[in-house]
Design brief:
The complex is a heterodimer of chains A (about 525) and B (about 325). Chain A has 19 helices and no strands. Chain A has about 525 residues and is an all-alpha fold. Chain A folds into two domains: about 220 residues, Vanadium-containing Chloroperoxidase, domain 2; about 240 residues, Vanadium-containing Chloroperoxidase, domain 2 (Orthogonal Bundle), CATH 1.10.606. In chain B, strands 1-4-5-7-8-9-10-15-16-17-18-19 form a twelve-stranded antiparallel β-barrel. Chain B has a two-stranded antiparallel sheet with strand order 2-3. The longest helix of chain B is centred in the first third of the chain and has 13 residues. Chains A and B meet through helix 1, helix 4 and helix 13 of A and strand 12, strand 13 and strand 14 of B.
Chain lengths: ~525, ~325
């Protein structure tokens, strides 16, 4: 006993000393480790790639650049040289951050905003719920509530606007064919990898201009933050010797003009009406009872109106609304049927026998309240693969556009199915079923995670065929996490995976025909 | 959708209170009081703590959550205390914890929580006036005993951080009455969660979470005799950093969890059965931030073994 106590004491003191002495608790964010973008191909033919909405690049105004040697250009060059003369550590950090890529960083910024605003409103004193309003965005609850359908659509508009803006920019880059600052003035130091892309208008600025304009609409309370990010990115281009002010101004202006085309679409794509109204919510119950099924009721207290019940009516990017109906799977098992009971028993068993491995999988894919949602998770997965590919900015944008159009359209198809059938969750059918994650406030069939994940995996497999099995494996895991988390039946997951994959194929078909080719 | 709440009270509040329940034979000694167990004596204890809250603070906003109802935590603890010398004690605690939410669908969790090992040393002792003044240094460390999920608050049973704490404590006793005060600093390790990205005040792409350090101050006053101990304790725990739960968001392990609590304990030694003691007490959170307003009650049985030859009863 004495010896034991002595050694324990010694061990404790030593451990404590080592622990306190070595306490470096710095958390390393893997996205800060990305190298500067160094495309293996500039994709110089990107002006011929098929845009999403833009039909004629000459419909946009990009003033001819100042002549090399003009006083305006010389002043621009002088500004760059002066900025470069004494770089602070903060400025070097700005270069390190933004040089990883404009599309990459703006996609991350969007994920940040989605996570920040993905919060269901707190109830009113009378037990009803307030809704965010785009016309009064600063009032609680702030606009938007960036739930999964909202997020899927936001990522899609951001990526498609960036893609069309870059394709359009390539048109003008070729037209004006201005060489980069360091080529015109050897005393400008280029602090990032060389690019042979004509530098007017700046591709970074085009992405920033499109992103800022789009995000102002999607996250109107964050305008200051968004503009500050854009200003920082423009500064980066000058600090790095990659662009002069005239190239940046032209790029931002063009990006904003292209974004306006997408904003016009967004305003009329029916998403604004997706919340529906109290009579519409009540009428949804007939969708289940008319089939002899039990209708969904909110498991929240106080009961919360269903999440975006009319999102299934939103106009998709990859196909028309009649295709949404065609892609809708057949009905779920009727409540009380033998098949239904069997699935309910399976869910109950996962609920009552949780394992650490299942909980870990549920957590990993939860992507619930306060997160960037499942589409955001797939954007993050795509990012970590895309960085290995050394894409050009325009290919980054094109690939994200394909991915996110698929995610948005998967959201539309999934929401259409959920509200067309309006069936109950496992915990509604059997209140003994406790869940390993928060239970979503919308009907069960089919699983959103499954739709999103299969759609994403299908697109990513097309883009990176050598990793296809990994993506499909991840999608299956994400889908299964909802079953073992006890919030979905097996059929929700299996059918959701099928529909998601079908939606993904539309994006693949688009990718095969857009002129970009397979890339490297 | 789900709204929830911090389990922190488990970690520090409940543990602290249960250690406060740890007493023995005319001497109650815990990691937060001035009482020592004599050399070569060992005290074993089994205690039960029942803690529950309905209201909690989301940042500074006090609310309830009908999707949680009442969150109940039951902790079953085995504890030991050994006198290495008359001036140095070694204590340990092993808790098994279960949680349950009375409303909503979230599944309660259970498992072995964290082992805490403590060294308690009388650094200084002197007579002042008619009383005795002592100063103590108390070093504690804790490590998780299982891979319970730290990011499923409020039903998580703990936070998974390894900790090292150093507490300075002074005590002044006149006759059977004492007053004491203490200050503690707790260094916490970072933790790993099952997600590989998470949002605090910004998105962080890592499964690694920085856990801010904490401090605790307490004051206690009471009566100590060979048969009976009665004491009252107020304490305040502060997280040195972290962030608030945003409106209607889920809690996160690195939230700023602060609380002020008041409690008391009673311990009684039997005349007839040498070495046997019973203890009971409670704690109530008066004010908090990103924690539940918990009430906890505890009770325990303690037994003292004497390994010293000369000191035999």
């Amino acid at each position: 006993m004495k010896k034991f106590a002595f050694y324990t004491t010694l061990l404790l003191v030593l451990t404590a000393t080592v622990f306190l002495g070595s306490c470096n608790k710095e958390v390393i964010d893997r996205t800060t480790l990305y190298p500067a973008l160094n495309p293996s191909s500039e994709d110089l033919n990107a002006d011929t790639w098929k845009p999403v909405l833009v039909t004629n690049p000459d419909a946009f105004t990009v003033a001819a650049p100042d002549a090399i040697g003009s006083s305006a250009y010389t002043a621009d060059i002088s500004e760059v040289k002066s900025l470069q003369s004494n770089l602070t550590s903060d400025q070097k950090a700005i270069i390190a951050y933004w040089s990883a890529g404009a599309v990459l960083r703006w996609n991350e910024i969007m994920r940040d905003l989605v996570a920040k605003y993905n919060l269901p409103p707190y109830q009113n004193p009378d037990g009803t719920y307030p809704f965010p309003s785009s016309t009064n965005p600063f009032a609680y609850p702030e606009f938007p509530f960036s739930n999964p359908p909202y997020a899927a659509r936001a990522y899609a508009y951001l990526s498609t606007a960036q893609y069309d803006a870059l394709v359009t920019a390539y048109h003008f880059k070729k037209l004006y064919n201005r060489a980069a600052p360091y080529k015109n003035d050897p005393s400008v130091q280029l602090l990032i990898p060389k690019s042979d892309l004509p530098s007017y208008p700046s591709e970074d600025a085009v992405v920033a201009g499109a992103s800022v304009e789009m995000m102002k609409v999607l996250f109107p309370t964050e305008v200051d933050y968004i503009e500050q990010k854009a200003a920082e990115e423009m500064l980066y281009r000058k600090l790095a010797g990659a662009n002069v002010q005239g190239e940046l101004t032209a790029g931002q202006t063009l990006g904003a003009q292209v974004a306006d085309v997408f904003i016009a679409r967004a305003k009329t794509d029916r998403a604004g009406k997706a919340i529906g109204s109290a009579p519409e919510w009540a009428a949804l119950q007939n969708n289940a009872t008319s089939r002899g099924d039990q209708y969904w009721i909110s498991l929240e207290s106080p009961p919360r109106p269903p999440m975006l019940p009319l999102f299934g009516k939103v106009i998709p990017f990859l196909f028309d609304t009649t295709t949404v109906v065609k892609l809708r799977p057949g009905p779920p098992n009727l409540a009380g049927s033998a098949a239904f009971k069997a699935e309910e028993v399976e869910v109950l068993s996962y609920s009552q026998h949780p394992t650490a491995a299942n909980q870990a999988m549920v957590d990993f894919w939860a992507d619930g309240v306060g997160t960037y949602t499942p589409p955001g998770h797939w954007n993050a997965i795509a990012e970590s693969e895309f960085v290995k590919e050394h894409y050009s900015e325009v290919r980054w944008a094109r690939n994200y556009a394909l991915l996110n159009m698929a995610e948005m359209d998967a959201a539309i198809c999934c929401w259409d199915t959920k509200y067309f059938y309006f069936n109950e969750r496992p915990s509604q059918a059997n209140p003994i079923i406790k869940t390993l994650t928060g239970i979503p406030n919308f009907p069960s069939y089919t699983s959103g995670h499954s739709n999103f994940s299969a759609a994403a995996a299908t697109v990513l497999t097309y883009l990176l065929p050598d990793r296809g099995n990994e993506f499909i494996g991840l999608a299956n895991q994400a889908a299964m996490s909802r079953l073992v988390g006890a919030i979905h039946y097996r059929s929700d997951v299996e059918v959701g995976l099928q529909t998601g994959a079908k939606v993904g194929e539309y994006a693949v078909a688009r990718g095969q025909a857009d002129g970009a080719g397979p890339g490297n | 959708m789900m709204k929830s709440l911090p389990a922190n009270l488990l970690r520090f509040g409940v543990l602290a209170s249960c250690l406060a329940a740890f007493s023995l034979k005319a001497n109650a000694q815990t990691e937060s009081d001035a009482i020592m167990i004599p050399k070569n004596m060992f005290c074993a204890a089994a205690t039960y703590d029942h803690s529950s809250w309905t209201d909690y603070w989301e940042g500074t906003f006090k609310r309830n959550n009908l999707n949680i109802g009442t969150l109940t935590t039951n902790s079953y603890m085995l504890m030991g205390n050994y006198g290495i010398t008359n001036k140095l004690d070694l204590l340990f605690t092993v808790p098994y914890v279960t949680t349950n939410a009375s409303a909503g669908t979230l599944a309660g969790q259970s498992g072995l929580q964290d082992l805490t090992v403590t060294l308690k040393w009388i650094a200084f002792e002197t007579q002042i006036g008619t009383g005795v003044f002592t100063a103590h240094a108390i070093l504690s460390g804790s490590v998780p005993l299982s891979n319970y999920d730290p990011n499923f608050l409020p039903v998580s049973i703990g936070l998974q951080a390894r900790t090292v704490s150093l507490r300075g404590l002074v005590n002044y006793q006149v006759g059977r009455f004492f007053v004491a005060g203490a200050a503690q600093y707790t260094e916490r390790s970072d933790i790993n969660i099952n997600q590989n990205a998470y949002f605090t005040t910004q998105e962080i792409y890592s499964n690694n979470v920085y856990m801010p350090n904490m401090n605790n101050i307490l004051a206690s006053v009471g009566y100590r005799s060979l048969k009976l101990n009665i004491e009252a304790v107020v304490q305040q725990t502060t997280t040195l950093g972290g962030f608030d739960i945003t409106k209607n968001n889920m809690p996160f392990p690195s939230n700023t969890m602060n609380w002020t609590s008041a409690g008391g304990l009673v311990k009684y030694s039997f005349d007839g059965i040498s070495g046997l003691e019973l203890t009971a007490g409670g704690n109530y959170v008066l004010k908090g931030r990103n924690v539940g307003q918990s009430t906890d009650v505890f009770g325990g049985v303690l037994y003292v073994f004497d390994f010293s030859n000369k000191n035999h009863r």
